[in-house]
Amino acid sequence: MKRYFLLPMLLLWSLTTLAAGTQYAMRVDGLACPYCAYGIEKKLNQIEGVERIDIDLEKGLVTVDVREGVEITEARMLQLFKDAGFTYRSMTQQRL
Amino acid sequence: MKQNSVLKIIATTTAGLLVLLAVAWLAWVPSPKELAYELAGSWGGPGSGAGQLNEPTGIAVHKGEVFVSDARNARIQVFDVDGRFRRQFGTKGDSPGQLGRPMNLAIHQDELYVADYWNDRIEVFALDGTPRRRIGRAGSAPGEFSAPGGVAVAANGDLHVVDFYNQRVQQLKPDGKFISQRGESGRIGIWAGEFNYPTDVALAGDGTLYVADGYNDRIQVFAADGRFLRKWGGPFALNVHGPFNGWFATVTSIALGPEGNIFVADFYHDRVQKFRPDGTFLTAFGTPATGPAHTAIAVDVDADGTVYVANYDAHRIEKWRPGKR
């Protein structure tokens, strides 16, 4: 009985995992200025597949959730942050 | 004997450096010539309800009403001069009458001009909030914008628009037709007439244009015919920032007072600084920041000399009056 219950749960888990997107966390300097922060949000919003943007002024952290199949490269972020007037530090990513 | 010579050299060098420092201090750190302003009231607070604000970034006072760019709520809120909520308009979006991120404001002939940083245009409203027209579109060609931060309107209706990412200030006809520009499109510079992410403009009655040259930490002044006149902000006004009188760190707004004096939001120092039109420092005042963000982001001055400041960090509007003590 337990086995019959586990099987669909496992299937559901694998489906949601496969459909999950990616979360990118980027450390940048200069976030306290809204002219820069809004510039970043504006440019990130223009990337196809970006679903959520969060800016943490205190930590200097920009977090971006993208949908499954969308990839953000570090080179692209480096350019984007440079264009927006920021100093880019680093990027990490994890599956959602 | 040798040791004495070394000591003499050290003493002479130290004395020389101290004299230089004293001269530099006298030359570049002026004393206040007026009392600091006093806080006479404030209103707002974080939120999205009527009267609450989520990152105020622009302010304009006109005929007893205070207009506020409520940036993250993508709307304009209107208060009386004591902070009582009157009305709001604009919703999030890019359709006519909608706003992305409203920034510095200007009022001319009973119309509100909103620099919309995200929609790359100037959105014009009647003062009751009725959308009237929009000027400009995204791009870097003449008459186009990349994140306009502020706007000033001349007596004849010509617009002066600060074009943040295009590193220029454009002069346009009332219908948006390009007339001229100051600064080279897309090129950052620190010399006279060049810009480093300009944020706002103010226009005097004689057509003199004052530009808040944001990340150059200075003010630049141009004659009505476009000639560069002067600049100020730190030593030689060459992007040297600091917390001293007359110095800046990221200027985000500029306004003219009733006597022609210049009020500048010195964002990273959480203060407004007041100058004579020639750049002579008069006084400074502001509210210290409590969070990671900063306070004084936008400023405007009423006909009676009362100064209204948008406090970005506290999501509040502050009212300041000239000091009496």
Gap between N and C termini of chain A: 31 Å
Mean pLDDT of chain B: 96
Radius of gyration of chain B: 21 Å
Strand order of the largest sheet of chain B: 1-24-23-22
Share of residues in strands of chain A: 25-35%
Q: Whole-number average pLDDT of chain A?
A: 82
Structure annotation, total helices of chain A = 3
- Count every beta strand of chain B, where a strand is a DSSP E run of 2 or more residues: 24
The H-and-E topology of chain A, N to C, reads as HEHEEHE
Strand order of the largest sheet of chain A: 2-3-1-4
Rg value of chain A = 17 Å
What profile does the largest beta sheet of chain B have?
A: 4 strands, antiparallel
> How many beta-strand runs of chain A?
4
CATH class descriptor of chain A: Alpha Beta
Point out poorly predicted stretches of chain A: 14-18
Stretches of chain B where pLDDT falls below 50 for ≥5 residues? none
CATH architecture of chain A: 2-Layer Sandwich
Q: Which SSEs are present, and which pair or pack?
A:
The complex is a heterodimer of chains A (96) and B (325).
Chain A: H1 2-19, E1 22-29, H2 34-45, E2 50-56, E3 61-66, H3 74-83, E4 87-95
Antiparallel strand pairs in A: 1-3, 1-4, 2-3
Chain B: H1 2-28, E1 38-44, E2 56-62, E3 65-70, E4 75-80, E5 85-89, E6 102-108, E7 111-116, E8 121-126, E9 131-135, E10 148-153, E11 159-163, E12 168-172, E13 178-182, E14 200-203, E15 209-213, E16 218-222, E17 228-232, E18 251-256, E19 262-266, E20 271-275, E21 281-285, E22 296-301, E23 307-311, E24 316-321
Antiparallel strand pairs in B: 1-24, 2-3, 3-4, 4-5, 6-7, 7-8, 8-9, 10-11, 11-12, 12-13, 14-15, 15-16, 16-17, 18-19, 19-20, 20-21, 22-23, 23-24
